[in-house]
Structures are given as C-alpha cells and as structure tokens.
Amino acid sequence: MNNRCEEFDKPKEECGVFGIYHTDGSAAAPDVAWGLCALQHRGQEACGIAVCDPCGPKGNISWHKDTGLVSEVFHTDILEKLKGSAGVGHVRYSTTGASTAENAQPLVLSYLKGTLALAHNGNLINAQKLAQKLQEEGAVFQTTTDSEVIACYIARERTHTSCVEDAILQTARKLKGGYALVIMSPRKLIGVRDPLGLKPLCLGKRGNSYILASESCALTAVGADFIRDIQPGEIITISKDGVRSDRRLVQEKHAHCIFEYIYFARPDSILDGINIYDARIRAGKALAASYPVDADLVTGVPDSGITAAMGYAQASGLPFAFAFYKNSYVGRTFIKPTQKERESAVHLKLSILGNVVRDKRLVLIDDSIVRGTTIASLIGMLKNAGAREVHVRISSPPFLFPCYYGTDVPSNDQLIASSRTAAQICTDIGADSLGYLKLEDLKQMTRELPLCKACFDSQYPV
User: Fold this and answer.
1) How remote is the C-alpha of 275 from its chain's centroid?
2) Where does this protein hold [4Fe-4S] cluster (predicted)?
3) What is the CATH number of domain 15-254?
C-alpha cells in the first residue's frame, strides 16, 4: 500500500484500461483519449497511450505517458503525433509500485519476436515469486510494477510459441490474482480477463471498429455500442479478420469484486449484467429496511453516496436533499501529511448548504468507512451548520480485512472497524446512530452475482 495521504478516506480506485482497433485506418489516439477520460475515476495519478499501424511495418509502436490527468497529459499536438489505427490506453492508481512516470502505462516492450504494449488493471499475489524467477534467468526490470512481470513473461513465452495469443495463454496460466489486460501487438489487439472475473472488461463496437474497456461508460464516450462482457478467463483477439475468442482458461468458479458495484464503477456503467446505478439504489433500500430512523431528510456524501441515499429515501419515504456543495475545481495533487491538513482538504472540497440542514435530523449515506477521518469531519461540519442529528448509514459492510487483488485497502491496523465495534465507531465519528449494509444484502444488491467480498468476510477466492 502507498503511504501518501489522500483528500478522502476511501479505498482507492484501481486502474482503467482501454483499447481500440480501427479496421478503416482511422486515428486511434483521439478515441483512446476520450475513453480514458471516461475512466478517469479509476485512476488519477498517471495515464498513457500507445498506438500502432496494424497494416504498417512491424515494431512501429509509438507512445506517450506521464503523471497527471488525461486532460493534463494529452494535448492536441501530442495526440496528432501518435500515428496508428490501433491503440491501448491506461489510467493509473498505483496498488503496486511507486507513483512515478516510469511506472505509468501502457508498458511498451521490444523483444526478440517484435513489440507489444500492455495495459493492466489489477494485482498479482504471486508477482514477487514470478519476478524472482525472471531475475534469476537474467531479466532486468525497468519499473516496480507487477505489470512488467506479466509483459516479460509474455515476451519470454513468445520466443517458443507460434503466435502471441499462445504466449499470453501460457503466461496467464502462471498468474494468480485479479487482472484485466489489454495488449497490443503489431497486428492484433488482445483482451484478457482473470478466470475469477475479479476485474471487469467489456467489448464494444462502432461501425467496423472494436473496443475493449474496463467499463461500458467508456464505450458510450466514444459512441460505441456495448456488445458483451468478456467472460472470466476469456482471451479475445481483435484483428483485421474480426474477433476470435479463446476460452481455455474459463472455469466455473467466479468471484466479481464487490467494490466495483459499491464504489469503483461509474453509475452509468453495466458490469456483468448489473446496472451500477440500480445496484446502489437497491443497497440504499436495503439500508432503509434494516436501519430505519425518525428523521427529516436523507442526504449523501458526494459523489459515491448519492445514489444509495436516493434508494434509502425511496424506501423510507423521507425526502432526499443535497446537503453538500462539491467544489470540482480543487486539484487532486494536494499533499496532506498531517491529520489537520487532511481535514482542511475536506472543507475545501465540500461545503455545507446551511439552509438545507439547519434544525434538521439527517440521514447521511456514504459507501464506506475506512479510517473514519473523513466521515467524522463531515458530521462535524453538518452539526456546526445547525443539523440537530446526523444518523450515518453505510452502503457496504464494515471493512475488516485487506485486499490483495488490486484494490488499495489499508492494512488491518488502519481499518477502524477491525478494532472497534459499530457502537464505538459511532461515538468516535460523532454520529447519532450508525448502520452498515448487512453482508447478506450484498446478494440483493448484485442479483446473486458470485462475489469476492473478502475485505468484509476474509473468504479470499485465491
């Protein structure tokens, strides 16, 4: 886990991957940039784009990547220099490896059989073991990410396979953990999803162009139609000959990351048949059924608590209202090394609509409590603005265990719920009552989708 301080006490976004293959020779880079903008919520530390011409000379991959937001890194003049009709892109939040330009993706690799560019969302639990084996055989790594381990294994396997897909298959058989990969070789665009389906990946189409993306909202951003989710364990190849699927890694056991549905994914996305907006509405309704309270109105913490708050309001019959104004123009690069500075950042990002909350008994909905610092600040702000009561409802169960598959959840000693009861947390954060979504209600939220919820119950699927 990274030890830098963030402006909100939340599990950190994973990463976002995007790839496009134009069969008509259109420029890929602008579409990749638009797709990455739609996935910006999944990572704000760094981004990159790599492109090639599938009909041109092999090894003609060009790329640009840097720390910062997509809009900061990719200007028109840079996009115009990225010539090619196939491309991959990545937005990064670092779960392994430092937040540096060297660790930005896509990773571009030249090797004996050619070149490849790889964009990776997820985390491998056996990356260190795999890296050690490669180093013993003479490999030298340029980054500190597990993504480079994957790329190096593909390159090594490719030296004795007939095609890049077989090299990817042999590599994937060695990987343990959660991953969604978009890989570009000089002639092909390839998507890979881990056999459990921990990380999302979907396929879209616009005219004669095919798109791979972490979420369906990125397909919408480039005017593409959603075709389907990539099946867990599926390797899908896009080339001038069309789309081909390899399901040799497919297995019966699936475990989709629950936090995609609680927090990570955009509300306008659909993941594995589940509408994210509707799932969060159902979570709010379940909270209202489990933890009713005599109150005047329901509100949510922007942005992630808003949809569940609407569900709570619908089920409880209480009115919904916005209690916070979110300043969207506060930069993401504030460094907050002390608790006081973190609290100041919350005040800078969110302000209270005093006339909405004054003399009111509020139900405040948020998606999670990690350390408890942010929610305590928000409750204090609401009460200072005149709120009579603040009843907190959380649209996830308590965080009790760390995640090893690509979600940056702190270690146990930093998870407030691992050492405090709900009653103690309620007192610590200054709430008048506190209720968490029940573990059994996750099934209702995701329509019985098989889930990884190890951060709540320690039942790790790998």
Assistant:
1) 16
2) 257, 403, 452, 455
3) 3.60.20.10
The residues that are catalytic are 15
Q: Name the β-bridge partners of 236.
A: 191, 245
Identity (one letter) of the amino acid at 364?
L
What gap in Å lies between CA 423 and CA 352, rounded to an integer? Answer: 26
Count of CB atoms situated within 10 Å of the CB of 208: 11
pLDDT of residue 441: 98
Residue closest to 406 by CA, chosen among 231, 179, 233: 179
- Name the least confident of 93-107, 313-327, 413-427: 93-107
CB atoms within 10 A of CB 366: 24
pLDDT-above-90 percentage for the chain: 81
The CATH class given to the 274-457 domain equals alpha beta
Could you tell me which residues come within 8 angstroms of residue 306 by beta carbon, excluding any fewer than 6 positions away?
Answer: 300, 365
Annotated binding site for Mg(2+): 304, 366-367
Q: What does the domain layout of the chain look like in residue ranges?
A: 15-254, 274-457
Q: What is the mean pLDDT of residues 239-250?
A: 97
Contact predicate 237/185, CB 8 Å: no
pLDDT tens string 398-409: 999 989 998 877
Binding residues for [4Fe-4S] cluster: 257, 403, 452, 455
Q: What is the mean pLDDT of residues 339-345?
A: 58
For 390, the token pair is: 């603040």
State the binding site. 257, 304, 366-367, 403, 452, 455
CA distance 173 to 175: 6
